[in-house]
Amino acid sequence: SQQGEEDPQALSIQEGENATMNCSYKTSINNLQWYRQNSGRGLVHLILIRSNEREKHSGRLRVTLDTSKKSSSLLITASRAADTASYFCATDPNTGANSKLTFGKGITLSVRP
Amino acid sequence: KAGVTQTPRYLIKTRGQQVTLSCSPISGHRSVSWYQQTPGQGLQFLFEYFSETQRNKGNFPGRFSGRQFSNSRSEMNVSTLELGDSALYLCASSPAGGRNGELFFGEGSRLTVL
Hints:
heterodimer, A: mainly beta, 5-stranded antiparallel beta sheet, about 55% strand, B: mainly beta, 7-stranded mixed beta sheet
């Protein structure tokens, strides 16, 4: 079963607007990562935030992490048509097990020109 | 550096057949993970190999198997194919596994079972 649950499932915005996507998870984590996938392609890593971090920026991306609420948000500012893709959060559960990133079902973002 | 290479990109099989998918990781990466992606189930973890050893395994039947070679290249095999095995199979590599950082994904192998 998925560890991360993204919200909303789909998002449609106008170019230039900001897009906010949320992810909730169930167990404690070492880190949380966001990935992007263009239709039918592989996933591309966007950003990683560790459990002891609260906020991180990378270009137009801003990620927050609230471990008390077990949630994260990804903000894309000044969106572009090229940002149209599916976005996934992935969690590395703090179970002591070896590498096993668990992905949510993803958010489909459409940016209208 | 070349990225993660998966072959073949597309293939069509019939029920009961078997299939082998190949993955060449980024040079220097020792960890290779495999995921199955379907519209209904999303991304499901299959297994992870590190230095030729299976280090972790997801909840898939024994028909799904894999291996890793000394050059870190990996293959996965699905025997006795079922219609429900139709999916995009994604391979990802990393220096030491997702626990310590990002995964680098290939473009996937899209399997259609008829």
